[in-house]
Amino acid sequence: MRVLKGNDPAGISGSVFSISNPEASMILAARRHVSAVLSVAIVFLLAGCSGKKDLSPPPVNTAPRDKLELVVTVDGHETDYPVTVSVQYGNLSKECSNIDYWYSLGGNIDYPKGDIQAKGEGGVFEIYQDYYAPREKCAWTIRHVVITMRAPNGRYADTAISRKDFKEGFKWDVRCNFIRADVNICFPPATSDKPVPGVSASIQVRRSHQGEML
User: Fold this and answer.
1) Who contacts 202 (Cβ-Cβ below 8 Å, separation ≥6)?
2) Is the pLDDT of residue 13 over 50?
3) Are residues 39 and 102 in the same domain?
4) 76 occurs within a structural domain
């Protein structure tokens, strides 16, 4: 730092170059801020470049026993409105997931998951909660169950059961409409007196006493 010496008729010696000058303080604060931001960015960069974890599922259970039956009854239109069921398995543990710190600058957790088409006949679908073999860490369980009803015109409507609700005794009545050409959703019937267009269906989960797979 340069310091003025000798005669100083203007009386400004030291005032321009002093560290206590407000402008100098602002510069130091800005440098600290930039340094902190760079440190955080480096941490995110190193984390994002680190090796990815193996998110592969466990082996399929060769002798599953924990079986529930999902029964879907379509009111009078079973053959015209066929139903399919998809079960998503996976885990929700951060320790068993990959984290992308750059996703939308807010981070994203990539939970391992996979969809299995449930086998069924006559509106009864057998779903195994122990479809995958158990393991001590990163075990895969049911995340949700998706029920899809297809209309004769090719359109379809979906509804889903969460992992918390998918248990013995669950019952739900829905009404599915096929107004949109892309995605339609089945909702509980409206309580109003006005009829709601669509097809009604009853959904229930019950315990299966059979030990064999379909």
Assistant:
1) 71, 72, 73, 75, 171, 172, 173
2) no
3) no
4) yes
Residues 199 and 113 placed together within one structural domain of the fold:
yes
Q: Which residue has the higher pLDDT, 151 or 76?
A: 151
62 in any annotated domain = no
Is pLDDT at 212 greater than 50 in this prediction?
no
pTM above 0.85, yes or no: no
Tell me, yes or no, whether 33 and 122 share the same domain: no
Does a structural domain hold residue 213?
Answer: no
Distance (Å, whole) CA 115 – CA 122: 22
Q: Which position has the token pair 């960015």?
A: 41
Q: Which two tokens stand for residue 213?
A: 């797979």
pLDDT given at position 11? 47
- Per the structure, the complete domain to which residue 31 belongs is given by 11-51
CA atoms within 13 A on the CB side of 9: 0
Give the count of domains, the chain.
2
Cα–Cα distance for residue pair 82/57, rounded to 1 Å? 30
According to DSSP, residue 130 is labeled T
Same domain for 111 and 36 = no
Instruction: Answer yes or no: do 32 and 81 share one domain.
Output: no
The segment with the largest mean pLDDT, out of 8-17, 74-83, 165-174, is 165-174
| pLDDT digit string, tens, across residues 71-81 | 999 987 667 89
| Contact criterion met (CB below 8 Å) for 71 and 123 | yes
Task: Enumerate the H helices of the chain as residue ranges.
Answer: 22-49
